[in-house]
Amino acid sequence: MVLVQFHVLKIDFSIYDDKTKSLLDEVYSVFGQFAAWKLRNMTQEEYPWKLAAQNSGTITHQSLKEYFKTQLNREKAV
Question: What are the Cα distances from residue 73, in Å, to 11, 59, 66, 67, 78?
């Protein structure tokens, strides 16, 4: 038998403005369906993580910036 323990986070969303709450809702609606291991696997297939694995193991701000710029450009094209 495997026992799984979940921790419930209590977050005070009143500290966020409407724009931030909307972003958090959108992120949760897309990624909230995935387990932690699935999210980890998904990110490790993306460019900054692959690049870090080939190099020092450090994900640089520059590689993140370049990667997410391409994601924004892709989103605008849709």
Answer: 32, 21, 11, 10, 9
Mean local confidence (pLDDT), 61-71: 88
Answer left, alpha or beta for residue 12, where phi above 0 means left and psi between -120 and 50 means alpha.
beta
Q: Domain coordinates of the chain in residue numbers?
A: 42-78
Q: Does residue 47 contact residue 63 with C-beta atoms inside 8 Å?
A: yes
Residue type, 27: V
HSE-CB of 57 using CA atoms within 13 angstroms: 0
Asked whether the whole model's pTM tops 0.70, one would answer no
